[in-house]
Amino acid sequence: MFGAAESGNDKVSFKFKVPAKLIRTQRSIYTPPFATTQNMFWQLKFHPESKDHREFCALWLIALPNPLEKYSSENWSDRSEYSVTYFMKNPNEKLNFGKLENYNARSPVWGFTKFCKKERLPREGEITIGVRFNKVKYEIEKIATPLPSQPLPQDLLKAWKSELDQPEISDVQFNFKEGTLYARSTILIERSEYFRCMFQQDKWSESKFTTKSLISSSMQITQAKSCNSTKRSWNLLDVSFGRMKKVEDLFSIYRKMKPQPMTTITSSSGTTCTIVYESENSNSINVPKKYLVNVIDFHLDTFKSMLKFLYTNQIEFYSNSLHRRPIDVFVMADKYLITELRDRAKSKILKDLKPDSAAELLFSTEWLWSDVKDMIMSYVVRKWEVVRETDKFREILEKPQSYPNSKELVEEILEKVRKNDEEKKKLLDVVAVE
């Protein structure tokens, strides 16, 4: 299969030559991936015989998610700015698809099931299939975002997973109502700004960054009489997501500091950490410091899912579980400032959306996060005729006091539905005139 790209006048075409003999023997034919921008990838899929209409052939344009699109639904909006035309040569055929506004993580493939009569396909020679992107500027620069790479070896993932919850090699103990978990601070510090701030709290006094760059409230320091401890309190719940400053590595500074015997850190957002250092007069100079963290706002199972991600970069969601649903992981990742995990959970929330669950999520919790609210709001507006008939939505209308902000949300939904209906009506009027 031979491919080529042609650009000009804010248009770019990708075309691929396919041997006629291959068409007669293959059920599906995929072109090599191609890109319209540095991080936007595509692929054509050709069916010599359409599954839905056997007398026709089908042509599809597949969106290949880049790493950001794979875990976050917001980035798909960039594709909606393009409009495309599908074409074929020998036989000649051209169909205008229009704007790519329906592409998303749940529906990455769109095209025509009745593109061309199958009987028109040649038995010899070759045909050309292609797609033209309209009103786009083709970038010939080096692609910055690579196509998805090979997954990590399973034996490596297994090895890292086995390191978690091992008391003998861990210096962090997490205490829950349900039990205890163990982890290594070196891993948590590198993977989470929250834990970096918690476990390296003394380093912040030596950092060129002020505590305000990460912590919304000022640090309060008091001296405890009983154990010569220092108590520092902060609230990380109000930190705006995505506005974190990168913290420089301060290990060298910290090694020069003389630690206190014990430090207790209390967060008003539900986490308390007690740092126990080696005694200055202790003979066991190789004993590492221990972090005792009391977690009262998350279940052990939810927290363990997060720790597994920090260790392996892998996450498994269980939509029917009590504590490992995508929303559970999302809330936790949002608090602990783990961006990638937050995006993965948000993407999973979108993929699992159904009319009944969308109403419940939107009115129960999701309105607290604007990005997730907008995502679910779009779904509810799009599926409004179905959502409004669900038992959950009726319950919301009957018991608005049980759902904070329900009145404002309903008004916002109705306004968006009204605007959506007006746009559809205008489009129908234009088609009727033509």
UniProtKB/TrEMBL annotation:
Family annotation (PROSITE patterns): BTB
Domain of life per record: Eukaryota
**Ranges of residues in domain BTB:** 170-319
CDD domains on file: MATH
Q: Which InterPro entries match?
A: BTB/POZ_dom, MATH/TRAF_dom, SKP1/BTB/POZ_sf, TRAF-like
**Which is a GO BP term held by this UniProt record?**
protein catabolic process
For this protein, the record's PANTHER family field holds: SPECKLE-TYPE POZ PROTEIN (PTHR24413)
Name by which UniProt lists this protein: 15877_t:CDS:1
Supply the source organism's classification: Eukaryota, Fungi, Fungi incertae sedis, Mucoromycota, Glomeromycotina
